[in-house]
């Protein structure tokens, strides 16, 4: 890291970040699988930070899934 100046390192990071991201078409539909994965990650994060007890997973997951689905489908 010492061989990069401040601007050089920032430019290097921007190149890596932009070159590794594939361009997605705007019209690409969001799959049900993607909605499931996002919903699961949100609920798991709530459990990890202590905002949700694992026993409430089912009820909370249904609520989060419905919200994410409604958001991306509207």
Notable features of this structure?
0% strand, flat, mainly alpha
- Counted by DSSP, the helix tally is 3
Are there runs of 5+ residues with pLDDT below 50, and where? 1-6
Largest sheet, in brief, is:
none
Oligomer: single chain
State mean pLDDT (0 to 100 scale).
Answer: 77
Cα Rg: 19 Å
Provide the succession of SSEs: HHH
Q: Report the principal-axis shape.
A: flat
Structure write-up:
The protein is mainly alpha-helical and 74 residues long. The chain has a domain at 25-73. 66% of the residues lie in helices and 0% in strands. The protein has 3 helices and no strands. The chain has helices spanning 6-20, 32-48, 57-73. The longest helix is centred in the middle third of the chain and has 17 residues, at 32-48. Residues 1-6 have low confidence and may be disordered.
Task: Give a brief outline of the structure.
By secondary structure, this protein is mostly helical.
Write the layout of secondary structure elements.
Elements: H1 6-20, H2 32-48, H3 57-73
Helix pairs in contact: 2-3
